[in-house]
Amino acid sequence: MKHRAVNRRSVVIGLGATAGVAAVGGITLTAQADNTGGTDSKGASVNDLLVFDQDDFTEKTESIADASGTEHSVTYRFYKARNYVTNPSDSDHQTLVVSVPVKIDGTAVDASNAPIVLANAVGAYMPTSVAEATGVGQAKLEMTGMGGAMPSGMPPGGTGGGMAGGTGAINGMVNLAKPALVAGYVVVEPGTRGRSLTDSSGSYYGTAPAVIVDLKAAVRYIRASKGRIPGNVERIVSTGTSAGGASSALLGASGDSEIYEPYLREAGAADASDAIFATGAWCPITDLEHADGAYEWNWGTLPTQTTGKTVDQSVSKELRSQFAEYQAGLKLRGLKGSGFGKITARNYTDYLLEHYLRPSATKYLAALSASERETYLARNTFITWKNNRATFTWEGYLAHVAQRKKTQPAFDAFDLSAGENNEFGKGTTKARHFTAYSAKNDTTGLSSKRVDSDIPEKLKLMNPMFHLLEERNPNRSKHWWVRLGTSDTDTALTVAANLAMAVDNLGDDVDHAYYWDKGHATNEDPGDFIKWVAKVTGYKS
């Protein structure tokens, strides 16, 4: 597979605009003298038509909490929504806003070389918009008309023992726009198309791969605006949760991959690199074509939250077998320092227990007072606390989690009811199967029991594991922050662990941990992430 060379000239894109000036999404874009990218039919450069007006901002002062929850007076420049492509199919969603710190608690901030945090608000593969944002951290996740089960979970507060979202949450999801701004970083919040969007003919235009195309286009816009958008365009750090975490991971894994080029050309993306420097992914629900097997391997014996009953164990067994075969074929090794070699379905429970779950429980219990710890252990007798360490079995851990959130198959439902089925919709077809197993066992009466011919390519476009393991993309992000709650049954624990192993085995830097007793969309250590960004980017404020 070929990867896109940075600054390679784009193909000609007809914009139907007069030379030098175009109206895009209701915003007038004025061309400059240089033509560094592709050109429209009148000779105007695509990059010229995407000029970021650095004087078009409103200066605002707000009280904003940092990652620890402490309030600060922050003065910042807010650049209202503007399109990041020249040919948007949806002007309301294919826009971004920029926030640049000027003063924090009265002290001047120079953000000219600060990291740029690209904070997506994606959840459930639904649309997000910043079109009406008047300040930082106002990205809107649109859940109206969603239909079907949520693929990425929007849990009520307290699911799994943790407050959904935690510090910096927006729309119930992890969002670090405000804490990043207080830290002195430049913040870019992109809107994206999502799976519920339809045009006047009833055709779905926000399904796969729209979300990743939009995020890539946003990155290209930032890079093409070097010197205009403050901050270091070589130090872009992506953040996202759940489907947004999956999208963030995909963005990091697929930098400059040419398989997205036709989609980016069609949208009129800037002629620039779409590679990012670092990736933050909270509870990423990804590797969808293998997610059903992983879910059954992890949670298959637990009753569902909705029925209180266990799922069909014959189906569960078949899917677990698929996972075992898939995992063996990955040939992934445990993270360096873990003491584990090749990770298969046979030793995965030991790997999770020793490298993640027991250390996570130990950290949690060690932070409690003696009386609090005694109370917790009395309620949770499956844990043995000795020499300041927590030990327990896999069976004890599963009994502690107690229930699974999703039915089966969790992602490619036999009746096409899962949100992911909608994510792979096409044209006026709302939902489609994307695995051979579920297509074969379809219960909706489809005439064909096979996946559509375009599905394999769509899966490549949506799966970071393809870019990491099959293509070993040299332009991927080299720094990764991955988090998941131990009581998060929206996905399997192995999904995040496999992602972490994949980048670690390629020699990349990865900081991966699980939050004990926490559910979906939880962020327990936002301050550590903010410090990590400074460390890996080498930024000193």
Summarize the structure.
This protein is an alpha/beta fold. Helix content is 28%, strand content 16%.
Q: Explain this structure to me?
A:
The protein is α/β, with parallel strands linked by helices. The protein has a domain at 64-282: 3-Layer(aba) Sandwich (Rossmann fold), CATH 3.40.50.1820. The protein contains 15 helices and 18 strands. The chain has helices at residues 177-182, 210-224, 243-253, 261-267, 291-299, 313-330, 348-366, 370-379, 394-401, 419-423, 436-440, 455-462, 464-470, 493-505, 526-537; strands at 21-24, 27-30, 58-65, 71-83, 95-104, 107-108, 116-119, 128-129, 140-141, 169-170, 173-174, 186-190, 236-241, 278-282, 384-386, 389-391, 479-485, 509-515. The strands form 5 sheets. Strands 3, 4, 5, 6, 7, 12, 13, 14, 17 and 18 form a 10-stranded mixed β-sheet that branches. A hairpin with a 2-residue loop joins strand 1 and strand 2 (27-30). Helix 2 packs across helix 3 (243-253), helix 3 packs parallel to helix 13 (464-470) and helix 5 (291-299) crosses helix 6. It is globular, with a radius of gyration of 23 Å. Residues 1-37 and 147-173 have low confidence and may be disordered.
Please give the structural blueprint.
Elements: E1 21-24, E2 27-30, E3 58-65, E4 71-83, E5 95-104, E6 107-108, E7 116-119, E8 128-129, E9 140-141, E10 169-170, E11 173-174, H1 177-182, E12 186-190, H2 210-224, E13 236-241, H3 243-253, H4 261-267, E14 278-282, H5 291-299, H6 313-330, H7 348-366, H8 370-379, E15 384-386, E16 389-391, H9 394-401, H10 419-423, H11 436-440, H12 455-462, H13 464-470, E17 479-485, H14 493-505, E18 509-515, H15 526-537
Parallel strand pairs: 7-12, 7-13, 13-14, 14-17, 17-18
Antiparallel strand pairs: 1-2, 3-4, 4-5, 5-6, 5-12, 8-9, 10-11, 15-16
